[in-house]
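Priority: medium. Attachment 1 of 2:
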């Protein structure tokens, strides 16, 4: 499959990093520091990423963007939402599904 590339995380320091951030969060911030979008729901890690010039969105924000751009169908997005809830015990805020259905598509 040609759409993925395995790369090593850069070693540069992440400004504002705390002991609360794990190695995976730090690596993700480093990888996105040269551009790209970081999909992260941890607020502290997201704030630190933004302080380091990284664009950050949450899982719900990403799903809404997919809906808005009509990148995948609403049904597929709802399947993904249910899978996240069932398999990963992800908790969406109340009313998210209704908000998703009302999104104006571009």
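Attachment 2 of 2:
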């Amino acid at each position: 499959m040609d759409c993925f590339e395995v790369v090593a995380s850069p070693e540069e320091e992440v400004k504002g990093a705390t002991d609360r951030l794990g190695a995976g969060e730090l690596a993700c911030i480093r990888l996105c520091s040269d551009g790209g979008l970081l999909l992260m729901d941890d607020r502290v890690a997201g704030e630190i990423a933004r302080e380091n010039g990284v664009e950050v969105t949450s899982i719900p924000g990403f799903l809404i963007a997919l809906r808005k751009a009509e990148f995948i169908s609403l049904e597929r997005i709802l399947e993904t939402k249910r899978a996240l809830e069932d398999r990963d015990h992800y908790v969406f805020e109340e009313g998210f599904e209704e908000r998703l259905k009302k999104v104006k598509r571009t």
